[in-house]
Amino acid sequence: MHSLLVTGGCGFIGTNFIRYIFTKTDYNGIVINLDKLTYAANPENLSDIAEMFPTRYFLEVGDICDIKKVSKIVEDYNVDAIVNFAAESHVDRSIYGPKDFLQTNVVGTFVLLETIRLYLERGKSIRFHQISTDEVFGSLAPQVQSYENSPYLPRSPYSASKASADHFVNAYINTYQIPATISICSNNYGPYQFPEKLIPLMILNMLEGKELPVYGDGLNVRDWLYVEDHCEAIWLILHQGRLGETYNIGGENEWENIKLVNLLCELVAKKINKKTDELKKLIKFVSDRPGHDKRYALNCDKIKRELNWKPKVDFIEGLNLTIDWYLQNSLWLHKVKSGEYIKWIEKNYLFR
Ligand code: NAD
Ligand code: TDX
């Protein structure tokens, strides 16, 4: 691999993945980051990488649904692998506006697959990796785990769009023999996550003394994985994963939301010299998310067995790293919240 196209690289996991490649691996090829720069994107996340590696890192602003743009990038940069992070990723937004989810998550993935199919037909070589989510398996009863071959039972517009994308990837593997893999991951947390998701939202609200909104009874369960562990697993799959296969990547670290929010109160209180109870008083049970999935849990035996991967970062350590990052990056948070990045994007891209 010498020319890697990462889509959605200005979002949370994509940013961490590109940073991981440049700082933690011996890869010496180029990385092209194709990102539409939606509200969830922060191109400044990678400005230090862009400065340090001007001949190896390239940002292309564009939409994965634009087949001409995608084909031109693949052609111009001689791309030999694509990792698709680009997505609308927030479940609540999918409930209030599902159309963008259908467009980017399904049509966008389809466009990438079509580009690859046509490229391969011309005798070129390229592989594809799709980033998927544990939500495709739907809501689980206690103790049950989802395996790679468990049936898909998506229940939100977000998870339905991600499941549909995975079906297209598998259809293209089966029908056109495209060299592709899929990974299915549980909830990620860590630096650069947009503060609409549970962990950064709670940290931010604690710092600002705002209410901590817990949906329903707070007993929904999520499995949490530090984002760098996810990046490492993707890198391993790209290099050693068997083509045509799907790999689960989980933290084996299940938490009821309310327990997690209480833990966050304890950890944040220590850092900002406040009493834990002062933060816990901010917890407010609010109306439940419509169709809120109760629990997700992945069985990760396959990636452990085949690729010798397991999560490295302990949960408390990972949460402390995350809280420290948000404390040290208050300017980032301020800009994200005030829409300054949107202004930056307009100045640097839309009107260029
Ligand atoms: P994110 O919302 O933080 O970032 C998404 C990125 O994709 C943004 O930079 C955005 O501008 C870009 N994008 C959106 N539409 C695009 C389009 N049409 N063309 C090009 N770029 C576009 O998302 P994330 O949390 O980093 O998630 C990345 C991927 O991982 C997604 O596919 C998501 O479904 C999957 N995933 C996320 C989690 C999680 O906990 N965050 C867990 C499992 C799987
Ligand atoms: O304010 C909140 N209060 C609350 O109780 C928010 C934002 C969330 N929640 C609950 C809902 C979920 O049970 O916390 C849990 C986590 O919520 P999110 O951070 O919105 O994540 P989730 O819905 O689990 O989906 C995430 O993990 C799987 C990502 O957003 C997806 O992109 C990924 O595929």
Tell me what the structure shows.
The protein is of the alpha/beta class. The mean pLDDT is 95. Helix content is 47%, strand content 16%. The protein is built from 14 helices and 12 strands. The strands form 3 sheets. It has a 7-stranded parallel sheet, with helices on both faces. The chain has a domain at 3-194 and 224-254 and 293-315: NAD(P)-binding Rossmann-like Domain (Rossmann fold). Residues 7-8, 10-14, 34-38, 40-41, 63-65, 85-87, 89, 104, 108, 131, 133, 162, 185, 187-188, 194 line the site of nicotinamide-adenine-dinucleotide. The site of thymidine-5'-diphospho-beta-D-xylose (TDX) has 16 residues, from helix 7 and strand 8.
Q: Name the structural class.
A: alpha/beta
Name the CATH homologous superfamily of one domain. Answer: NAD(P)-binding Rossmann-like Domain
Name the strands of the widest sheet in spatial order: 3-2-1-4-5-6-10
Mass-distribution shape: globular
Number of strands: 12
User: Under CATH, the topology of one domain is which?
Assistant: Rossmann fold
Instruction: Please report which band the strand proportion falls in: under 5%, 5-15%, 15-25%, 25-35%, 35-45% or over 45%.
Output: 15-25%
Radius of gyration: 20 Å
Spatial separation of the terminal alpha carbons:
32 Å
Averaging pLDDT over every residue, what do you get?
Answer: 95
Low-pLDDT runs of 5+ residues are none
Small molecules bound in the structure, each named once: nicotinamide-adenine-dinucleotide, thymidine-5'-diphospho-beta-D-xylose
* Biggest sheet features: 7 strands, parallel
How large is the count of helical segments?
A: 14
Element-level helix/strand string: EHEHEHEHHEHEEHEEHEEHHEHHHH
Q: Helix content range of the residues, please? A: 40-55%
CATH class of one domain: Alpha Beta
Going by CATH, the architecture of one domain would be: 3-Layer(aba) Sandwich
